[in-house]
Specification:
GO terms for molecular function: transferase activity. Keywords: Cytoplasm, Phosphotransferase system, Transferase. It holds the Pfam family PTS-HPr. Its EC number is 2.7.11.-. 35% of the residues lie in helices and 27% in strands. By secondary structure, it is α+β, with helices and mostly antiparallel strands. The chain has a single domain, classed as HPr-like (Histidine-containing Protein, Chain: A, 2-Layer Sandwich). A 4-stranded antiparallel beta sheet has the order 1-4-2-3, covered by helices on one side. β2 and β3 form a beta hairpin. The longest helix is centred in the C-terminal third of the chain and has 12 residues.
Length: 84
């Protein structure tokens, strides 16, 4: 399991539909990917979960990944949420 705490920045600026695009990034990996914030945990591969979670600028988020490609998944989700 890998875990990293980040602060979401500029996620909407670089993407036309950031919610759908975040799910697409997550679905590229076999690992389980969970986003956690304020006692909420959602599956990053769930469009409905991401819509309810609504990652926005300044939000503190823990990215938790578990599986064979967990490091790659963690980096990809982090890069998406901090627009790198």
């Amino acid at each position: 399991m890998s875990k990293k705490s980040i602060v979401v920045t500029k996620v909407c600026e670089g993407h036309d539909n950031p919610i759908a695009e975040l799910v697409q990034v997550a679905c590229k990996f076999d690992s389980e990917i969970t986003l956690e914030s304020d006692n909420r945990k959602i599956n990053a591969k769930s469009i409905m979960g991401i819509m309810a979670f609504n990652p926005s600028d300044g939000m503190s988020v823990d990215i938790v990944t578990k599986g064979d490609d967990e490091q790659e998944a963690l980096v990809a989700i982090e890069n998406f949420l901090v627009c790198e």
